Amino acid sequence: MFRSVVYHRSSLIGEVEIHPKNSNLGTWTREIRISYISHPPSDRCSPLAILHTISTSGVCFMMESKRSADESLLFSVYSACLRENKTAVALVGEEELHLVAMPSRRNIPRHSCFWGYIIGRGLYNSCLAMLNRRCLGIVFDLDETLFVANTMRSLEDKIDGLQRMISCEMDPQRANGMLAVIKRYQDDKSILKQYVDGDQVVENGKVFKTQSEAVPPLFGSHQPLTRPIIRLHEKNIVLTRVNPSIRDTSVIVRLRPAWEDLRNYLTANGRKCFEVYVCTMSERDYALEMWRLLDPECNLINSSELLDRIVSVKSGLRKSLLSVFQAGVCHPKMSLVIDDRLDVWDEKDRSRVLVVPPFAPHFGPQAEAKNDIPVLCAARNMACNVRGIFTRDFDEVLLPRMSEIFYEDEVEYPSVPDVGNYLISKDDTSTLNENKNPLCFDGMADAEVERRLKGANRIGQSILPISDNIDTRAVVPPGLTVITPTAPAVSLTTTQFPNTVVPGKPNGQPVL
Fold it and tell me: Top enzyme class of this protein (predicted)?
């Protein structure tokens, strides 16, 4: 125990005794300066429950007023925080110290008791708003999770790669399967070429001309612009030009079936049940345009927040939730990731990644349409279940227990709700199945548009995940496993999905 003084801004309001709960307290504890009282008040969640959920180190100290002193000013702060469900906040470097007013079993008149928590700046207010609305964060990957996109160059590379394989293939069945895939790539190339050359597409005798779509100006560095767009709704195809003045940046985008169902669920009845973010390894301008095609009305991410919520990870680095939430907008425990790859994520975040089969319309164009539950509908069901269980644990377990705790209690605290607890497979393993097949590509070949814009020349990898009616042996090189996601979603409390092996994914990770 040691003694300290507490200021509210520049006014001394009391002398206190501090009882450290860990040894990492700095010299700032000798003089605590309260900058403000948290606002708004919490209408559904106690500050103690919120901080217990989002703090990584728990209670860092206990603080009480000296019994011999008249601490009327400090007691005023204490009683206001206790009455209004607020905290007293002191800024400590890049972090915030939150003083939580705690009830005492001793009932000493005009005695103030606080627990102290250290968290990142802005995190408390963000998580308070989300927990009051029973809202979680959801982070989407883009390429091969929500769509597949290609330029003329990436289509030509894929066709050339398959043709080289055919020239060496002795099995007629395999060769025929590769020819079927080539035909689908050539169809897309024909559509894209019409768009590049003439700003129109002829499909089934009908002419589709480009429509100018305004791109909302983004704060800071982006000027207003319009892009020539063609939407072929029956084929779930969109044609766009990332740089409207450079035709080589034209892209054909195949949207994954049921994206609209998932998008509508996320904004059902005008109420957000998830705060949406994007984490991709694609180049920034390309990622912004792809997301605009997915959310043209900015219902999921407000246009003023796009630059903060769409995060592009540099090549060679792993994705992480801390990089997505670096501005203190959400806590990793309160977020779910939907991605077709697990190995690109930081190990500490992998338990929160829901792995979906990569979208591969050229290898199995009807595979997802034939499923009883499309992949993105199954992802929607899983997200709904996770949110429901998180909310139940928070409301029915954590909140009642935290309301029973007093300042003097040394108790076993209830476990903190964590999205990762609801996705862990019983067969979880860290072993990665790597796919090193040279034929494979990653949607837009990672930074195909960036290569067009900046002169880079880089092609990434992907996997061949699902098949249609063709013999899978005819398409998939030896050593790769092919799956067709046909199992319907079941209750999260049982086995959500069978332990399906996905090339490039760790065995045992939850897979749709």
Answer: hydrolase
Helix (H, G, I), strand (E, B) or coil at 57: coil
| Per-residue model confidence (pLDDT) at position 68 | 56
**% of the chain surpassing 90 pLDDT:** 62
User: How does DSSP classify residue 505?
Assistant: S
* Rounded distance between C-alpha atoms, residue 32 and residue 19, angstroms: 14
Q: Which helix (H) or strand (E) holds 177?
A: helix 172-198
Q: How far is 383 from 419, CA to CA, in rounded Å? A: 10
Residue 355 belongs to what H/E stretch? strand 353-355
Instruction: Give the separation between CA 58 and CA 117, rounded to whole angstroms.
Output: 6
Which stretch of DSSP H or E encloses residue 183?
A: helix 172-198
3 state DSSP class of 250:
strand
More confident residue, 130 or 430: 130
Handedness of CA 168, 174, 178, 183 (dihedral sign): positive
Neighbours of 425 (CB within 10 A): 17
Q: How far is CA 6 from the centre of its chain?
A: 39
Is residue 317 classed as helix, strand or coil in its secondary structure? coil
pLDDT band at 144; cut points 50, 70, 90: very high
Report how many helices (DSSP H) and strands (DSSP E) the chain contains, helices first.
12, 20
Lowest mean pLDDT among 133-142, 295-304, 404-413: 404-413
Of 231, 223, 230, 225, residue with least CA distance to 244:
225
396-415 average pLDDT score: 88
Is the pLDDT at 454 greater than 60? The verdict is no
Provide the 3-class DSSP secondary structure of residue 28: helix
Nearest-angstrom CA–CA distance, 509 and 134: 26
Per the DSSP assignment, residues forming a β-bridge with 122 are none
Which single residue is written with the structure tokens 């499909």?
203
Q: Which of 63-67, 138-142, 348-352, 467-471 has the lowest mean pLDDT?
A: 467-471
Task: Name the DSSP letter for residue 343.
Answer: T
The rounded distance, in Å, linking the Cα atoms of 319 and 39 is 32
Token pair of 331 as six digits: 């806590």
Print the SS3 string covering 261-312.
HHHHHHCHHHCCCEEEEEEECCCHHHHHHHHHHHCCCCCCCCHHHHHHHEEE
Q: Give the separation between CA 412 and CA 318, rounded to whole angstroms.
A: 35
User: Does pLDDT of 489 surpass 90?
Assistant: no
Burial class (CB in 10 A: 0-12, 13-18, 19+), 297: exposed
Under a CB-based contact definition with an 8 Å cutoff, are residues 57 and 97 in contact? no
Nearest 5°: CA angle at 169, between 166 and 171?
Answer: 120
3-state helix, strand, coil split of the chain in percent (to 5) is 35, 20, 45
Rounded Cα–Cα distance for residues 285 and 302 (Å):
17
Q: For 361-416, where are the alpha helices, taking DSSP H only?
A: 375-393, 399-402
